[in-house]
What we know:
Layout: H1 6-9, H2 14-19, E1 23-30, H3 35-47, E2 50-56, H4 65-71, E3 80-83, H5 86-95, E4 99-103, E5 110-111, E6 123-128, H6 136-141, E7 144-147, H7 159-174
Parallel strand pairs: 1-2, 1-6, 2-3, 4-6, 4-7, 5-7
Amino acid sequence: MRRLSLDQxxxxxxxxxxxRPKLPVSLVLDxxxxxxxxxxxxxTADAFLVExxxxxxxxxxxxxxxxxxxxxxxTRSVAWEYFAAAPPLIDRLRADGWALWVVEQTDxxxxxxxxxxxxxxxxxxxxxxxxxGVSDPFLTAADGAIEIxxxxxxxxxxVAVAGGIVLYHTLLQMHPDFAGGNG
Length: 183
């Protein structure tokens, strides 16, 4: 076994990436405090061909050194937009036909393995603040909540880790053929 070089991986340039078809998936980062988490979510969104990231409230915005530390340039490949508050974004997502799902532990949440989505359904996944979770406007407006099953004592995951898990599950729901490799 040998590690592949960057050239052997055949990764597209940022321009080529922006021209590729994307999954009908957007991430909503609702009040994410850590700029490192924001950068990590940009990088994960790039990996899974996410259509767009919406940054809401106190969520940090590029360009920022701390975001770039973990994004590794993904802020230039992934489309993003900032909203100061949740209600205007919720209205926009609804008007544009997005299903709105929060990643949150609620009294009505669906365990992630039981959540399914069709290959052409447009879904916006809302990830909340590291301490307080998803804000009330998104909870109230959501079509549902997805919960990642956990068995330890902490009852929570880092928001960037949770985002990666949910995005990978979403990719496999929309494109089961991707389960075997690099698509």
